[in-house]
Amino acid sequence: MRWSPFKVETAAPMDAVKDYKLKHLSHPRLPMLAAHLRDIAGANPQLYDLYTQREKMEPKLRHTRSMYLASPRMEPHKVISRTSDTANILDCVRTRVYERFAPAIDEVVEIVRGELGVTQIGRIFITKLLPRSTIDPHIDQGEYFKFYHRVHLPLQTQPGCAFTVDDHNEELVEGDLYVLNNCLMHSVANPSEKDRVHLILDVA
């Protein structure tokens, strides 16, 4: 079944269930799908240049570049944590980039639905952290993150690339799923000579 977003009427009490730092899950299909998505992203680097305002407005993201597959109905480069327009920030739709990654992205979404039991998909984007750079420690705040969990699927990573959540530090594995508690302080380091590339899905 292909994913179709639907309008969110009420916010879910996500804070009550965020009793973890970084949940790790695996699925036999995900490594192949992750490699396929990585190859598509690598063949279409111009998609990272469609929306760059988020990186320009958020200093902690200055070393990242992102391509948006699904976003709030408002422009995808808006800094959604700073708006009070709850309906528009929770109700997400596919962008024109989405179909570039189908049908692999459809299958990833369905696996995430099945593994995590989620019913709502928020933003979906592929983001790269540039070589020898970091994402500074921060907490994701605002109405959007009271509703959505953030799920990472590493598409390309190298030894030494580490995710730190609170006091937990971990090198993530390509093709595995990670549910991040981004209500805790977290940061990322990429000391390698290559881009670190993740698919990120927000789910509820």
Automatic annotation (TrEMBL):
Domain Aspartyl/asparaginy/proline hydroxylase, residue spans: 106-203
A UniProt-annotated Pfam family: Asp_Arg_Hydrox
Classification via Gene3D superfamilies: B-lactam Antibiotic, Isopenicillin N Synthase, Chain (2.60.120.330)
SUPFAM superfamilies hit by this protein: Clavaminate synthase-like (SSF51197)
InterPro entries for the chain: Asp/Arg/Pro-Hydrxlase, IPNS-like_sf
Protein name: Aspartyl/Asparaginyl beta-hydroxylase
